[in-house]
Design a protein that fits this description.
Bound molecules: FE2/S2 (inorganic) cluster
CATH superfamily of the largest domain in chain B: [2Fe-2S]-binding domain
Structural class of chain A: alpha+beta
Number of helices of chain B: 5
Radius of gyration of chain B: 15 Å
Oligomer: heterodimer
Structural class of chain B: alpha+beta
Helix content of chain B: 25-40%
Number of domains of chain A: 3
CATH superfamily of the largest domain in chain A: Aldehyde oxidase/xanthine dehydrogenase, molybdopterin binding domain
Strand content of chain B: 5-15%
Number of domains of chain B: 2
Shape of chain B: globular
Distance between the termini of chain A: 64 Å
Distance between the termini of chain B: 47 Å
CATH topology of the largest domain in chain A: Aldehyde Oxidoreductase, domain 4
Shape of chain A: globular
CATH topology of the largest domain in chain B: DNA polymerase, domain 1
Radius of gyration of chain A: 27 Å
Largest interface: A-B, 66 and 60 residues
Strand order of the largest sheet of chain A: 11-12-9-19-16-17-18
Largest sheet of chain A: 7 strands, mixed
Largest sheet of chain B: 5 strands, mixed
Number of strands of chain B: 5
Chain lengths: 723, 156
């Protein structure tokens, strides 16, 4: 492993006082540059004493290898990130290779937050400056090494396509021939980065580097891991969260062909077999009695009722601008509404799975995770082993969406594997995957606005209640009853609102675990705020685009995406009867996005989304093809949520189980998606999640335009829209 | 019980119960992991393979129902002319995101193109609506099928 060798050369390590670059070192004749990439938003900036968590190694074969703490989940990170290095290092994109970062407490875990994770659309945002700086620093060192060897001045040489060239004499040397010399040089202290006009790679549609294996079945996901002798297990966990196994009758299951062992845990039973077919058959043959525990009567309505109560009492103030109370009292018109968003499952296409081999004081794990260090730490605890005795092999992920930031699956697999001789792959059935997910929280909002005589919002208050995922996942980031994720999109509206007051009341629902879910806080907040601004436009009897536009005089970037989306969508043009157009505008994950949805409401009340137009300003575009793909993807995810997404509880049990009752949008229902990008020289924003949060209110607003019915609860209930 | 089935042109023998779904024979017994598990109930299409050229869901196809039929999986689909075109078009249009559903998508698309050289949007909907993509790559799947159909026309 690279970092082992790097740290063993710590005598060569020099700390730079500025920026993200940490060290340069020579290891085995290679030039290695260590740098710090933020693994959670904003974390690196505040960290004292940078610890390198990413390394660029240039070998004597001139190959450039980057080890970094981000995993590929389908967002194209593996293509975009090498572009950043290649741009400044002046090498061909094909010369850059990526390696998964192995988990390592000291190197990969952020010292402040203790998390090594990929999430919150932050990969490119976090890597944007440090990786380009590292590439530039390496280039300068290589040029200096060449110049010294030739007895020339560095400024008379330049780098191009993996070589240092002295133009006048035509002399040239490959990077590989220079790395040993370069590694002895000081890390340069003032690296000047290219201006956008000088970019050769950034902004061009680069082909995805990970594509080929995905069309011929050769890519290996966690679920495809097959250590020698592996057995397959599947499991039944207590159908009510918090319940326990009372008794198991496994006499019939044990007689089945291919069934090897029944593992009984406190709150789950697993069947170990030669293949998943036998394991599933074995599971069906078990007779399990559960002690359902305290949550046996829980229903979604109970959770909703508790949250409705919670918004009646004051909570910590997440944002306060001006004097909303006074302005509300003086307003000409007041409008108030309650909004609800449901629990949602992730339903990644690759069902939860984890392969574990526990043997003689050691534990080896194969899986695909967004948070490898967390897996290692929690698995070690479950195995009763010191952390360094747990080896984790990460894989490509068959869909993350936040689900694979959690380590519950690995913990469960370790519990099972401890009772088994040899390696075991634990595979959740789709039913288990959906019914034992950790869910996007249910939230309830009370939102109110006061308008002046011209219909402008002079006061805006919003109090919402629900779970804080951060409080559990990253306790240090939960302060004074607030966290940056749960409130994103509610406290930082794009509009000029002179008097704004937002409170968040944390309420953890009993009997159902919550977790991050694609677009997280904004998936809730943008739906509420963008639906409500639409309500205000309607109350003011104004066009929704014009109404928003009038509140954007201070925000030209927001105005530009709003105008572009409206123009490209043909805003205002007549639609057939039963059709409607709706807009939503947001500034989350560092990107501005306006979306227009064109929908049709059929006679039976079902909603068909025909067309979605997106206008985005995500700062500098690294790979335009990836941006387009991510928006298309985010839109489909959001349309699924708006039309179908809902997890409900009855008698403590999740009622949905598979794709028949937890529906996912299919190709015959998929809208056409158009993506228009606004040119910008700002640093890149995130886009893996943005498309999801905005499309939900755009659809709800389009339904309002078509029917006059305001949707304040997701998902859409077709009964309420029947002609 | 012992079964010998023809997979990608090779007879393969396995010893499992007759009601064992083909999916698990491929993945767990034979180690051919290109075919994916998504739902186990014929709801998602991730496990799609060809049986004598038709797309079927291997998660509900019992091994004892296969007999002498020929099974083709994602590992060998590139050797068929339609499969090769589809794979190329998939790379050309950069369809895959996480990629997990794409084995199934490609198997369904290949079966469509092999029997229908000029699929309309409605034909694509019919053939592909059994395949879920949670990453939402549908716009590009549609484009790629059309690219493949056009390439075939050009290549005669
Ligand atoms: S796994 Fe067979 S259709 Fe989903
Ligand atoms: S590409 Fe991820 S599920 Fe289709």
């Amino acid at each position: 492993m690279i970092f082992d060798r790097t740290t063993s050369h710590s005598s060569d390590t020099r700390l730079s006082r500025r920026g993200f670059l940490v060290s340069a070192a020579m290891t085995g004749g290679s030039l290695v540059i260590g740098l710090t990439l933020p693994v959670e938003e904003g974390s690196a900036a505040g960290a004292e004493g940078f610890v390198p968590n990413a390394f660029i190694r240039i070998g004597h074969d001139s190959e450039v290898v980057l080890t970094m703490p981000y995993v590929e989940m389908g967002q194209g990170t593996y293509t975009s990130i090498p572009m950043l290095i290649a741009e400044e290092l002046e090498v061909d994109l094909k010369q850059v290779r990526l390696e998964h970062a192995p988990p390592n407490e000291k190197l990969y875990v952020n010292p402040l937050l203790g998390v090594q994770a990929t999430g919150n659309s932050n990969a490119i945002r976090g890597a944007w400056k440090p990786l380009r700086e590292a590439g530039a620093a390496a280039r300068l060192m290589l040029i200096e090494a060449a110049a010294t060897r030739w007895g020339l001045e560095a400024k008379s040489c330049h780098a191009e396509a993996g070589e240092v060239i002295h133009g006048p004499s035509g002399r040239r040397l490959s990077y590989g021939a220079l790395v040993a010399d370069a590694a002895r040089l000081q890390l340069p202290t003032n690296v000047v980065l290219k201006s956008p006009a000088e970019f050769k790679l950034i902004g061009t549609p680069a082909k995805r580097l990970d594509a080929a294996g995905k069309v011929n079945g050769s890519v290996v996901y966690g679920i495809d891991a097959r250590p020698t002798g592996v057995k397959i297990a599947t499991l039944a966990q207590s159908p009510v969260f918090g319940g326990r196994v009372k008794s198991v009758d496994d006499s019939a299951a044990k007689l089945l062909n291919g069934v090897r062992q029944i593992v009984r845990l406190d709150d789950a039973v697993a069947v170990v077999a030669d293949h998943m077919g036998a394991a599933k058959k074995g599971l069906e043959a078990l007779r399990i009695e559960w002690d359902e525990g305290a949550n046996a009567a829980l229903a979604t309505e109970d959770v909703a009722r508790e949250l409705e109560q919670a918004i009646l009492r004051a909570g910590p103030v997440a944002q306060n601008i001006g004097d909303a109370g006074q302005a509300m009292a003086n307003a000409v018109t007041r409008i108030a509404a309650n909004y609800h968003v449901p629990f949602l499952a992730h339903a990644a296409m690759e069902p939860m799975n984890c392969t574990v081999h526990v043997r003689g004081g050691e534990c080896e794990i194969w899986l695909g995770t967004q948070a490898i260090a967390r897996v290692q730490a929690l698995a070690a605890k479950a195995a009763g082993l010191p952390i360094e005795k747990v080896i984790v092999h990460n894989h490509l992920i068959g869909g993350g969406f936040g689900r694979r930031l959690e380590a519950d699956g690995a913990v469960r697999a370790v519990q099972i594997a401890r009772q088994i001789d040899g390696p075991v792959k634990v595979v959740w059935t789709r039913e288990e995957d959906i019914q034992h997910d950790m869910y996007r929280p249910y939230w309830v909002d009370r939102i109110e606005a006061g308008l002046d005589e011209a219909g402008r919002p002079v006061a805006w208050t919003n109090r919402f209640a629900g779970s804080s995922v951060i409080a559990r996942y990253l306790p240090p980031a939960f302060n004074n009853g607030l966290d940056p994720d749960t409130t994103e999109g509610a406290i930082d509206l794009v509009y000029a609102l002179p008097n704004l007051h937002v409170e968040y009341v944390r309420v953890e629902p009993p009997g159902i675990p919550t977790a991050f879910w694609r677009s997280v806080g904004p998936s809730h907040n943008v739906f509420v705020t963008e639906s409500f601004i639409d309500e205000l436009a309607a109350a003011a009897k104004q066009d929704p685009v014009a109404y928003r536009r009038a509140l954007l005089h201070h925000n030209p970037r927001a105005k530009a995406v709003l105008d572009l989306a409206a123009e490209k969508a043909g805003w205002g043009a007549t639609l057939p009867k039963g059709w409607g157009r709706g807009i939503a505008l947001q500034n989350v994950f560092g990107s501005l996005l306006a979306q227009v949805a064109e929908v049709e409401i059929t006679r039976d009340g079902s909603v068909r989304v025909h067309r979605v137009v997106c206008a985005m300003d995500c700062g500098t575009v690294v790979n335009p093809d990836t941006v387009q793909a991510q928006l298309q993807s985010g839109v489909m995810f959001g349309v699924t949520a708006a039309l179908y997404g809902e997890i409900t509880l009855k008698n403590g049990r999740v009622q949905q189980a598979n794709f028949d009752n937890y529906q996912v949008l299919r190709i015959n229902e998929a809208p056409a998606v158009e993506v228009h990008l606004v040119k910008s020289a700002e640093p890149p924003g995130g886009m893996g999640e943005a498309g999801t949060s905005g499309i939900v209110p755009a659809i709800a607003n389009a339904v309002f335009a078509a029917t006059g019915k305001r949707l304040r609860k997701m998902p859409i209930d077709p009964h309420s829209l029947k002609a | 019980m012992g079964f010998t089935i023809n997979i990608n042109g090779t007879p393969r023998s396995v010893d499992v119960d007759g009601d064992t779904p083909l999916l698990w024979v491929l993945r767990d017994v034979l180690g051919m992991t290109g075919t994916k598990f998504g739902c186990g109930q014929a709801l998602c299409g991730a496990c799609t393979v060809h049986l004598d050229g038709s797309a079927i869901r291997s998660c509900i196809t019992a091994i004892d129902s296969i007999g002498d039929s020929k099974v083709t999986t994602i590992e060998a689909i590139g050797a068929t002319s339609a499969g090769e075109l589809i794979q190329k078009a998939w790379l050309d249009r950069e369809v895959a995101q996480c990629g997990y559903c794409q084995s199934g998508q490609i198997m369904s698309a290949t079966a469509l193109l092999a029997t229908n050289p000029h699929p309309t949007d409605a034909d694509i909907d019919d053939a592909m609506s059994g395949n879920i993509c949670r990453c939402g790559t549908y716009v590009r799947i549609r484009e790629a099928i059309k690219v493949a159909a056009q390439t075939r026309v050009k290549e005669g």
